[in-house]
Amino acid sequence: MTDHPLTPDTKAKLEQVSVATLATALYKRGLRNQVIQDVHPLSQKGKNMVGPAFTLRYMPAREDRNQLVEFRNPEHPQRKAIETCPPGHVFVMDSRKSAYAASAGDILITRLMMRGGAGVVTDGGFRDAMNIAKLDMPAYHSRPSSPTNLTTNEAIDINVPIGCGDAPVFPGDIVVGDDDSIIIVPAHLADEIADEAIEMTAYEDFALEQVKNGAAIIGLYPATQEESLEKFAAWRKANGR
Questions:
Q1: CATH superfamily of 33-185
Q2: Are the CB atoms for 57 and 78 separated by under 8 Å?
Q3: Which residues are part of a known binding site for substrate?
Q4: What is the DSSP string of 107-176?
Q5: Residue 24: partners with Cβ closer than 8 Å, 6 or more residues away
Q6: What is the pLDDT of residues 70-110, one digit of tens each?
Q7: Binding residues for Mg(2+)
Q8: Are 182 and 191 a contacting pair, CB within 8 Å?
Q9: Strand 125-126, strand 153-158: pairing
Q10: Single pTM value for the model
Q11: Of 136-140, 159-163, 174-178, 222-226, which gets the smallest average pLDDT?
Q12: Residues annotated as binding site?
């Protein structure tokens, strides 16, 4: 687990910025593979999902170990993970980038929500996806998947480093999802990335407003002309940004 807990201030900032902006801030630091690939929101919530990662790792199922009777075991890692994911955390599953069989269904994900989960992410698929889409809690997957996870996956490890959609996820890393996609912010960078992203977002909002008013991109985005910076300073003052 991380020694860098998510502070309320940093969480509030990360709720206000886009995954795209965060990706650029991480790119500046040489981190180019933090966006989870080929995973999308089941439904748009209009607000960011933010929380520390709590993980589950699946491996290829071996048939003699993955009969339906496994779900009777109270220590089954998938069920146990749902019941132990801390409130405020995002449950992230490594499903081997396969939606051939489901990562979970609506009963388990509803339980996660009722326990205070901040969201759920899989690089596989959910069964009962239409019901999960209606929940208040954000959920992300690659596509709907009806077969039970036992068909091809065995839940094998809880809260260990995983790969999800080709992104490395360490327990406690900060997961941020918007209506486009999800990014993993290394926990030790979260505070400085949040601060920088807030600044970047202010300028992006200013630049977009200028473009809508007919301004050209050159010198404005990025801000290579002193005139753009002067206009931005006045805009910030006028808009309380």
A1: Ribonuclease E inhibitor RraA/RraA-like (3.50.30.40)
A2: no
A3: 105-108, 127
A4: HHHHHHHHTT--EEEESSEESSHHHHHTSSS-EEESS---S-GGGTEEEEEESS-EEETTEEE-TTPEEE
A5: 200
A6: 666 777 899 999 999 999 999 999 999 999 999 999 999 99
A7: 128
A8: no
A9: unpaired
A10: 0.94
A11: 222-226
A12: 105-108, 127-128
